[in-house]
Amino acid sequence: MKRLSLSLFLIFTFNLSSETILLKGGLVHSGNGNSAKTQDILISDKTIVGIGTNLIIDGNTRVIEVNGLPVTPGLISPMSNLGIVEINALDVTRDDESDLLSAGFSIFNAFNPHSTGIPWNRSNGVTSAMSTPSASSFPIFGLGSHFVLDGSLEIKGSKDIAMFGRLGSSYGSRAETL
Predict the structure, then answer these.
(1) Which of 4, 80, 103, 176 has a CA-to-CA distance to 61 between 20 and 30 Å?
(2) 2-71 to CATH, choices 3.30.1220.10, 2.30.40.10, 3.40.50.2000, 2.60.40.1080
(3) What is the DSSP letter of 164?
């Protein structure tokens, strides 16, 4: 049990600028539905260039022994307030509390790359997030955006890719709400 709990929280952090790295002997979860396999992963210039066993490396390759610990693709937080927690904490930024904002409010423009929640999530394997506006008393409460959490202070992602709202029993009948 001790090994399992350690493997869930072991995250490798390193600068991949132009370095070649071999993650050796990890339990690789490809994310395609197949069972995990013990394999090596070769990374060069921020790109995975090989997955398998007995990969060919040169003397400049940094080797990190993973020792059977899980290796997975980056996790995506599908519905969060990452980067906008500070914004949602203020009543005046909510669509139902302000005369300035509306259902067309774009989270992308309010995203805070300095948010303290981002490094914590990154350290736990979250590499991107869908940030959404908080629920409001209006049936439609704003636009959500996808953000890449790469540690950069430059905001990267896809702007306004979803509109969020709620219809149903908590707001009365759907017909009445519409």
Answers:
(1) 4
(2) 2.30.40.10
(3) E
Q: What is the pLDDT of residues 79-125, one digit of tens each?
A: 888 888 665 555 544 444 545 445 667 778 788 888 888 888 888 88
* 38, 23 Cβ separation under 8 angstroms: no
Question: Any idea which residue has 């774009």 for tokens?
Answer: 106
Torsion angle of the four alpha carbons 80, 86, 90, 94, in this order, in degrees rounded to the nearest 10: -30
Continuous H helices in the chain: 2-9, 85-88, 107-110, 117-123, 174-177
This prediction has a pTM of 0.61
Range(s) within the chain of domains with CATH label 2.30.40.10: 2-71
Radius of gyration of the chain (CA): 21
